[in-house]
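User: C-alpha cells for 5'-deoxynucleotidase YfbR, please.
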Amino acid sequence: MAMHQYFMGMSQLELINRAPGFFKYQPHNVAAHSWKVTQIAQFLADVEEQNGAQINWKSVYEKALNHDYTERFIGDIKTPVKYATSTLRSMLADVEESMTENFIKTEIPEQFQAAYTRRLGEGKDDTIEGKILSISDKIDLLYEAYGELEKFNPEPVFVNIFQSSLEALAEFKDMASVKYLAKEILPEVFKEDFIHKDLLFDLAKSLLPDFAEVVNN
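Assistant: Done. Predicted C-alpha cells:
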C-alpha cells in the first residue's frame, strides 16, 4: 500500500475513451477531461470570487482533479445507458462507491485514507465548489460536442449532448460564472458555423436569459 495502484490508475484513465461507441473526429479520454475540467473550474472560481463569493480553492482543485478518477473501476458508460432508469443509475453509483471504498482500504496508506475518501467521493454537492464542478463538467462536455458539430459529424448524439449540457447549465443560471458564460463565451461559440446551429441557438436563448439579452441587443 504505497500508492502504486493509485498512480497506475492515472495511466488507465488515459485509455478510457469518453462517449464510447460513437464515431468521433477527435476522441477524448477521461484523464484529459479531468485536466480540462480543472482548468475550467479554476477560471469559474475566479469569476465567482470576483463577484463576492468565498472560495475554498483546495476544494475546487480536489473536486475537479478527482471527479472522474473512479471511472477506472467501471469505465465511462454511455450516457443513455447510465441514465436509462433511476434504479440503474443508483445501482451503478452503489457499485462505484463500493469499489472505491474497497480500493481506498486496500491500496491507500492508512494515514492518507481520510484524504482520499474525501477526494474520491461525490464532488458535485451543494457547496459553491461543488456547483462549480458541475458547471465545469458540463462546459467541457458541451465543448466536446461542439468540436464534433463544427466538423459536421452526423451522429445525433452530439446534438443531444450539446442540448443536455445547455439544460444542465440552465440549472445554475443565477450563478455569476454561468452568467459570464452566457454573456461572454456562448456568443463567441455561435459565431462559428456548425451543424444544427439554429436549433441549438434557439435553445440557448430559451434556457439562458443572459444569453438571450446579449444576442437580442
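User: Anything notable?

Assistant: Residues 128-150 form the longest helix (23 residues).
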